[in-house]
Amino acid sequence: MSLPSSEPLPDNINDLPPARQRHIRRLPRSATPAERQILLDSLVQLTAPSPAFFLFVLIGALLAGTAFYLNDPAVLIAAVITLPLLQPVFGLGLVPATLKFGLGFKSLISLLLPLVLTFASGSLAGWLRKSGSLDQLGVQRFACPYWLDLTLVLACTLLGALVLLRKGRIPRLIGMMLSYEILIPLATAGFGFILGDPQLWPGALLVSLLHLSVAVFSAIVAFLLLGFAPKRASGWLSSLVPLVLILVLILGMWNFNLLDLPFTMQLSPTLESTNLPSETSSPKVNITATPTTAVETPTLTQTPSKSPTLTTTPTQTATFTLTPTLEPTTYWGVVDSLSGAVIRKSPDFDAVVVAYVYDSDQVEILRDVEGEGGTHWYQIMIESGETGWLLGSLVDTPTPAPTP
User: Fold this and answer.
1) Residues forming beta bridges with residue 54, ordered by sequence position
2) Which domains are delineated in the chain?
3) Which neighbouring-strand residues pair with 286?
């Protein structure tokens, strides 16, 4: 009778001795194919959504819609905490290595549920509120892509895949950050879609899909680097799908002119001295020619007659006078609001939002007025040429030169 050459491996990696588990998780490349397959199967189980996943998706989406309706950052934080860990992102990242496209399809469906619910919650909040002001939430940043958000998505996904492999779990903080970067832009897009806000729709939708594609592609790359390379050509081809989607989204943003701002909207523009009024500047003076009335100059003409005759010869002299004409002087200001600010059609909190500005943006101030309740408003012009009214407390302005 022959004996087996080695002891059969259990189906669950947690049934192995702790030392062997640590060795397989830390060095999957040095493990045997059977051990690596057991680890891969455990990762697939960990990334499968549970019933609690769908419950927390529903509660988190409702809280997100409530935050948009109330314009309350505290409720938005509660929504981000409540939203579940996006395990399906890592499940899609394992598809090229496992070649289990049926499980990948289930992960995709599970991921579409929070996407649809958060978009619907933002749309419902916009329909109930009927106002485009979200100045307290700071979600205007999602109107166009920003390199810091993309870096955060990339770092969180890589770190999440590493911890998932080594510890068998995803840290809660990483899940919260991915939910914030992927799901909150979708709620913003839904809010802007209902209100027809061109600053939030479709920019926030494209940003959310871009973050999602970057997360899935980062998960694929992370598992590839950790030792789970595709074994077939179909696995390599499936790993390129999110990369193609990223390129398509970038082209879409290019068509919507959303790539003019991503890497510059957080930069602080410098105020040039030539654009600022100085104390030595003088008002513009227009020189106008003003003809004066004819001046009659009497002249004496001596005649041979006994009696002198007085005759007058009129002469006309044109003189020029300097007439100063005062013209309105514009000056420059800098937006001082970390979460950005909205530009309204009139100096009123209920006026329609026409554009957005970001922290440290340079604006040209045309004039200022006092609104209801003693509020101070500036009529401004932004780089795109649009004009509107901005709350005075959100703008730092130099003292304009006195006009004579």
Assistant:
1) none
2) 13-255 (no CATH), 331-396 (2.30.30.40)
3) 323
* 3-class DSSP assignment, residue 160: helix
- CB 389, CB 377: distance < 8 Å: yes
**ω into 291 cis (within 30 of 0):** no
Task: Report the pLDDT value the prediction gives residue 323, as an integer from 0 to 100.
Answer: 54
Rg of the chain over all Cα atoms, to the nearest angstrom: 35
Question: Both tokens of residue 175?
Answer: 């899940």
Buried b (16+ CB within 10 A) or exposed e, 108-123: eebbebbbebbbebbb
- 21 bridge partner residues: none
- The residue type found at 103 is L
The answer to whether 96 and 235 have CB atoms below 8 angstroms apart is: yes
Q: Please report how many Cα atoms fall inside a 13 Å half-sphere around the Cα of residue 252, on the Cβ side.
A: 18
| pLDDT tier for residue 286 given thresholds of 50, 70 and 90 | very low
Total Cβ atoms within 10 A of residue 382: 19
What six digits make up the tokens of 76?
A: 């938005």
Q: Which residues lie closer than 8 Å to 211 by C-beta, 6 or more apart? A: 149, 150, 153, 181, 182, 185
Distances (CA, A) of 347 to 132, 265, 380, 391, 397: 15, 25, 11, 8, 18
pTM for this model (two decimals): 0.65
Residue 127 CA neighbour count, 13 Å, CB half: 9
Residues 296 and 367: their CA atoms lie apart, in Å, by 50
Which tokens hold the place of 2?
């022959």
Which secondary-structure segment (H or E) carries 8? none
Q: Is the dihedral of CA 378, 383, 388, 390 positive or negative?
A: negative
Whether pLDDT at 130 is above 90: no
Mean pLDDT of 315-332: 59
Q: Which tokens is 100 given? A: 């289990």
| Token pair for 10 | 């259990």
Joined tokens for residue 277: 């009024």
